[in-house]
Amino acid sequence: MPWFELLFRAWLDTLTRFVDAGGPVLVVIGVVAMLVFAVGVERLWFFHFHYRPARRDLVERWVSRAEHASWSARTLREVWVSELIRRLRRPLPWLKLLVIVCPLLGLLGTVTGMITVFDSLSLASSNQARAMADGVARATLPTLTGMAVSVVGLLLITRLEHIIRREDQRLHDRLARAAEDAHA
Length: 184
Description:
This is MotA/TolQ/ExbB proton channel family protein. It is a multi-pass membrane protein. It is found in: Cell membrane; Membrane. It comes from Halomonas binhaiensis. Keywords: Cell membrane, Membrane, Protein transport, Transmembrane, Transmembrane helix, Transport. By secondary structure, this protein is mainly α. It has six helices and no strands. The protein starts with a helix and ends with a helix. The protein is about 90% helix and about 0% strand. The longest helix is centred in the C-terminal third of the chain and has 43 residues, at about 140-184. The chain has one domain.
């Protein structure tokens, strides 16, 4: 049996035990986590393959203008920059929504898990402190998972907002420098 098949089976077994321990809410949190990471990868793709050529086209369009100093020229430059930055910022509200939803889903999983634990304890005739402690520990797993995905999503949002602010400033600087070079 090839090593990657063994590795895949071990990973699948670990994932199955993790979902069994935390309940079906973990599957939903997993889907939300995949969406968060997909948005991050999509932004990386957009930045490298769509934003940079659009930025280059914008600089060339700005340089090809005959006049750069009037109020209308500066206003037009500001509109062009705003449009390009808005395209860069477009999925951030959805990403923020997904990050906010993760801890709430974790809390939902904990509440449903606690209800299951108390329900099973009420059916048992004897006091089983160990079983209750295990049940509570399993019930808190969705909250932990939701918080972990949320923290990673917050780091992603912070990084993307930093990149967008930096690109906004760089774009203004490039356009100003390109106009100066065109008149020199």
